[in-house]
Amino acid sequence: MSLSGKTLFITGASRGIGREIALRAAADGANIVIAAKSAEPHPKLEGTIHSVAEEVEAAGGRALPLQLDVRDESAVREAMARAAGHFGGVDALVNNAGAIKLVGVERLEPKRFDLMYQINTRAVMVCSQAALPYLKKSAGGHILNLSPPLNLDPKWFAQHGPYTVTKYGMSMLTLGMSEEFKKYGISVNSLWPRTMIATAAIEFELGSRDAFKRARTPVIMADAAHAILSSEGRRITGRLMVDEDILRELGQTEFEHYRFDPEGGSLVPDLFLD
């Protein structure tokens, strides 16, 4: 199914995976709300809501760039209303905005935990709540959260428990909302990459691009998100999916073209996957 004419509200879409999901949907002729904080260029992170809006329209979609802090529930409600007013509704919400700090309890500043919790877990609730009145009116609304399967192996809590808690909270909300919103015909899922994804945020966290030789590009996440968001009738809902797995399930067998470096070594698995 095509996303032509559908309206997607994507948080954190000024770069990385969110940007790639926006461009993939734009190629179908979708309407894209680029909701992110970056209205001005960042010295270390490429992309703004305005640069992505230009790319979306060049790819064949319609764009509405909105500067938004997902921690502010009033601003989220206002942005959702503006999006619905501009495009005539909202058909899908992609909760892509994220914050990361891979340290344990001993070293993490409480304010950094607050930031991760607010942008990861809390924003899923806030944005989904704000989108719900519009998704109810859509012919098959979708919520897609970028969060992992729930792997309770202690190793995923030992080194960065606070971050793990905030990402798993997103996934637990996926499971809850899929059931809660069943009566409205809304599909709710989570999506996570099989491997490290080469994004500016990861480069910023690691301090270099060296690891990108063993990473995939965000295109694989965009293709997987497109497959989920274009599904109909709650055919796919309540699932915590991995990008490669859902694409294989739908018949894709070739994945080499997603490599950041075709000559790179073995791919690095992403967090939370054994």
Automatic annotation (TrEMBL):
InterPro entries: HSDL2, NAD(P)-bd_dom_sf, Sc_DH/Rdtase_CS, SDR_fam
Full protein name: Probable short-chain dehydrogenase
Keyword hit for NADP: yes
GO molecular function: oxidoreductase activity
Gene3D superfamilies: NAD(P)-binding Rossmann-like Domain
UniProt xrefs under PANTHER family: HYDROXYSTEROID DEHYDROGENASE-LIKE PROTEIN 2
Superkingdom of source: Bacteria
Protein family per UniProt: Belongs to the short-chain dehydrogenases/reductases (SDR) family.
Record's signal peptide: none
Coiled-coil ranges (or none): none
Keyword tags: NADP, Oxidoreductase, Peroxisome
Subcellular location: Peroxisome
Source organism: Metapseudomonas furukawaii (Pseudomonas furukawaii)
Pfam families xrefs: adh_short
Main location class: other
